[in-house]
Amino acid sequence: MNSFITAAFAAAVAFSAAPAVQAGELWRAAGFDQPESALFDAANNRIVVSNIAGNPGEADGNGYLSLLSPDGKVIARHWTDGMDAPKGMAISGGKLYAADITKVRVVDLATGKLVASIVVPNAVFLNDMTSDASGNVYVTDMLADAIYRVDGDKAELFAKDAALASPNGIFADGNRLIVASWGKGIKPDFRTAEPGGLLAVDLASKAVTPLPGAQKFADLDGIVAIGDDIFATAYMTGTLYSYQPGGAPRAIAHFKPGSADIGTDGKSTLYVPLMNEGEVAALKLD
């Protein structure tokens, strides 16, 4: 009887506990200039990489976009020039949008031509971007605790809340935006008085809700979701975290400091830009 109870309990635990996600490196592509974001372009089966190429906050005209194949081969080193310090990106309606300090750059996906620059009123340091199922485009302003929504050729304030705590990464997930917070009290060297965590912003109410068990654990940068799994990078330590509802963030990969705005194919692969190494790494999830 005791052995039966023990076996039944063990089976129940095994059934209820979600399997831990593992990540193994597939390849690395080198030769980039401060790669900040790696976005998978599913329609064209390629990865777009943003290169800051200078001071992340300086309008110096040095920034550009590159193209990679899914197996890590460079398709075009300089696909789109004429930017300053491009960071996070999003795709909507046949166009690519890139956050560029206080502007959102618009690129034609078919040609790589820069077709528009949208000035974001009162922007301080635009960082990451995402698009939802309806095609709406959103961009975070890390140093203003704000999120803007881009509509056509204009950007409007979507949410401004101290609870966003320096929002960096952003990813549209159903009826919400999930946000990677850098943290509160940012110092000149970008360290924080209080580390960030994972948040959700309701698209309808705009309410900001902390994700349980994922608060004040790291200065977070990029973020993506695949199913119920959320993945986020911690730039200052180079750590890649995995989080599942009801659990706690778990480190699944370690890089040198500088892991930034991750991308995904939406299935089983993550693309991690390594800013300080000038590389992009691809990870396979198990």
- Order of strands across the widest beta sheet? 1-26-25-24
Quote the distance from N terminus to C terminus: 37 Å
**What structural category characterises the helix and strand content?**
mainly beta
Quickly count the domains: 1
CATH architecture: 6 Propeller
CATH class: Mainly Beta
Mean pLDDT: 93
- Rg to the nearest angstrom? 19 Å
Largest sheet: 4 strands, antiparallel
- Strand fraction band? over 45%
Spell out the helices and strands N to C.
Answer: HEEEEEEEEEEEEEEEEEEEEEEEEEE
Range of helix content? under 10%
| CATH H-level superfamily title | TolB, C-terminal domain
The unreliable regions are 1-17
What is the 3D shape? globular
- Output the number of helix runs: 1
Tally the beta strands. Answer: 26
CATH fold topology = Neuraminidase
Question: Short description, anyone?
Answer:
By secondary structure, this protein is mainly beta.
Give a written overview of the molecule.
The N terminus is likely disordered. The protein is mainly β and 286 residues long. The longest helix has 15 residues. The strands form seven sheets. A four-stranded antiparallel β-sheet has the order 1-26-25-24, with no helix packed on it. The protein is 5% helix and 52% strand. The two termini are 37 Å apart. It has one domain: Neuraminidase (6 Propeller), CATH 2.120.10.30.
